[in-house]
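Thread: Newbie trying to understand structure tokens

Hi all, I'm a second-year student working on a class project, and my supervisor (Dr. K.) asked me to get a predicted structure for one chain before our next meeting. I've only ever worked with sequences, so writing a 3D structure as a token string is new to me. If someone could post the tokens and maybe explain what I'm looking at, I'd be very grateful. Here's the chain:
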Amino acid sequence: MSLVCTLSASPARASSHLLSDQVMREFQKLGASGETVRVVDHDVRPGIGTDMGQGDAWPALREKVLGADILVLATPIWLGHPSSICQRVLERLNAEQSESDEQGRPLTYGKAAAVVVVGNEDGAHKVSADLFQGLNDVGFSLAPGAVTYWVGEAQHGTDYQDLEETPEEVAATTRTLAANTFHLAELLSAHPYPAS
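---
Reply by user tm_fold:
Sure, no problem. This is what the structure looks like when written as tokens:
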């Protein structure tokens, strides 16, 4: 499952959605299927609970996350940080630290995660580091090379979605992300973490 954290509601084009779709196509080549959800299209309330009350769209999205073996978190860079939507997703995922299975493990244990970052400024490493730590804190495992990104030149207005073709470096990194994350998800499925 991919949660796209662009600030632009559908049907507007979004570079983070485009790169997320490319990641999901690589997973399909490996035999995995999944859904992409643009979070801003849903009323995800602020908070750190699994359900913030009437009208909160997070419980339905949470069920999809918990039903998936892999979570892809895709975000643009805004002011050197993940988008506010992405931060909200991490805050909502924080509630998983209070939820556990019958053996005392968080429900996110045994799930792999990967990150997609786009922007037209430097900062992809910083943003991915923030997301890696947050995802790991709430129980997800990350494979080597669990990020793909594209950033344009500083002070430049080109968006990833406006490129005539995907740069080979980005395509290769995307393939590596999918292969390594898929491999990790298979390992975790076959060999769960020990009971807490």
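A couple of things are worth pointing out once you decode it. The longest helix spans residues 168-190. The domain at 2-190 is CATH 3.40.50.360 (Rossmann fold). Feel free to ask follow-ups in this thread.
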